[in-house]
Design a protein that fits this description.
hydrolase; Beta-lactam/transpept-like; eight-stranded antiparallel sheet
């Protein structure tokens, strides 16, 4: 009987390993086919299933180099930073430093003076689920001023003026994507921890997860994938300032898989915090939103995802807690359609 049970265990393990290998080969085939059709766009992908990691990458770091992109090549994850920020918010909740239903008034820096119509109106969860109703920075105008570094013209004075002159929340409770909301979340974190956002994210996510090739600043490294705008022109990595909590982080497939591994593990601090962010805080006929994450459901699955688009690169992260898998896709060009099509094809043909 003992021998039979041991044999059964070996067969199950072998079957599971073969199944995972088959999935990784299918994902690689999809990525390879896409690269062959779009050789101007480099791709790096990391995939995790049942704690097993797989990576694939195609393309060169830049047009002048023959160095190939790999799982540790540095990309801008841009707005994927937002799910790191909300994970930090959830960690602060777990540490009883804030409550998600707290109004933001008590946590804002002194330069913000809310109009009486806005007082005790906006909750922390409203900021994190993009339904605060606050005005946002105009990226179109910022790009006209400085197409390479548009956020360089956003200052603390810019933001405080925008907030302080707001007299009405015209669409409070309705989804509207917000950079300024995440800037305020970062400042709330700074208030409760008495540290900079950079220090907080480093101490609570980057260092504990050993994400040694993830950067918030000083990211001029050799293994950096050059970004390109939608027309194919070279685009600089953003130097984020006060709006850092909305898009600061530079990372790679290897380190983002480490993040996914922690998210999928309910015993880690990051995993426990992620579960808080997965609760539905906003819902309409088009979407369901957690804290910083989009929630998609079909007849069998619930997946959590967040995309990121800088001026020169596109990315998307997605995971299924119940099925214990996660994926990160990174592109060397701002191409939201391509990265979404890649995820859709992988999900529909391999993961669904």
């Amino acid at each position: 009987m003992k021998t039979s049970l041991q044999l059964l265990a070996i067969l199950v393990l072998t079957s599971t390993f073969s199944f995972a290998q088959d999935i990784s080969k299918k994902i690689d085939s999809i990525i390879k086919d896409n690269y062959q059709k779009n050789p101007q766009v480099g791709i790096s992908v990391g995939f995790i299933r049942n704690n097993k990691e797989y990576y694939t990458a195609y393309g060169n770091l830049n047009a002048e180099s023959q160095d190939k992109i790999d799982e540790k090549s540095l990309f801008e994850i841009a707005s994927i930073t937002k799910i790191l920020t909300t994970n930090l918010i959830a960690q602060a909740v777990m540490e009883h430093k804030i409550k998600l239903e707290d109004y933001i008034d008590q946590y804002l820096p002194k330069q913000y003076v809310l109009h009486k119509n806005l007082k005790n109106k906006i909750k922390i969860s409203d900021l994190a689920s993009h339904q605060s109703g606050l005005p946002d920075i105009d990226f179109g105008k910022l790009i006209e001023l400085n197409p390479q570094q548009p956020v360089s013209n956003v200052t603390e004075e810019t933001l405080s003026t925008l907030i302080n002159t707001c007299t009405e929340l015209k669409d409070y409770g309705t989804y509207r994507y917000s950079t300024i909301g995440y800037t305020l979340l970062g400042q709330i974190l700074e208030k409760v921890y008495h540290k900079s956002y950079d220090e907080i994210i480093t101490e609570k996510i980057i260092k504990p997860l050993h994400m040694t090739t993830t950067f918030t600043k000083d990211f001029e490294v050799q293994n950096k994938a050059v970004g390109h705008n939608s027309e194919g022109g070279i685009q600089e990595f953003f130097n984020w300032n006060v709006t850092a909590p909305a898009g600061l982080v530079k990372s790679n497939a290897f380190d983002m898989v480490a993040f996914l591994k922690a998210v999928l593990n309910k015993e880690t601090t990051v995993g426990k915090a992620a579960i808080i962010t997965e609760k539905i805080y906003y819902k309409d006929e088009k979407r369901e939103m957690g804290l910083g994450t989009n929630i998609m459901t079909d007849e069998k699955n619930t997946i959590y995802l967040k995309s990121g688009d800088s001026m020169g690169q596109s990315s998307i992260i997605c995971y299924n807690r119940a099925e214990n898998w996660g994926i990160i896709i990174l592109l060397t060009q701002r191409n939201s359609k391509m990265r979404q099509n890649l995820l859709n094809e992988i999900y529909d043909t391999v993961l669904k």
